[in-house]
Amino acid sequence: MSIEAWISLISILMFTVWTATLSYQNKLLKKQNELLKDLSSEVTDSYNSLASQNEMLRRNHDKLIKALKKLGADSYQQ
């Protein structure tokens, strides 16, 4: 085999390996993207749940403050 033939063969093999590597990396990136989407969805759900709980706590806090103020006003009247 001539040197040119060896160079061509090596070039083809290198291109094949490079293409396979890129294909594998692409599959890995797609999987990572799916995992990140799932994680993002879970984080969004958790955030919404915490925001809802925070709102409920705020309302209960407001009710408690009103009740304590009323209790304090009632105790002064007695």
* Helix/strand/pairing category: mainly alpha
Span between N and C termini? 112 Å
Number of alpha- plus pi-helical segments: 1
- Mean pLDDT equals 92
* Element-level helix/strand string: H
Helix content: over 70%
Number of strands: 0
Radius of gyration: 33 Å
> Percent of residues in beta strands?
under 5%
Uncertain runs are none
Largest sheet: none
Kindly describe this structure:
About 95% of the residues lie in helices and about 0% in strands. It has one helix and no strands. The radius of gyration is 33 Å and the shape is rod-shaped. About 0% of the residues are buried. The model has no long low-confidence stretch (mean pLDDT about 90).
Short summary of the structure?
The chain has one helix and no strands. It is mainly α and about 80 residues long.
Question: Key features?
Answer:
single chain; 78 residues; mainly alpha; 96% helix; 0% strand; rod-shaped
What layout of secondary structure does this protein have?
Elements: H1 3-77
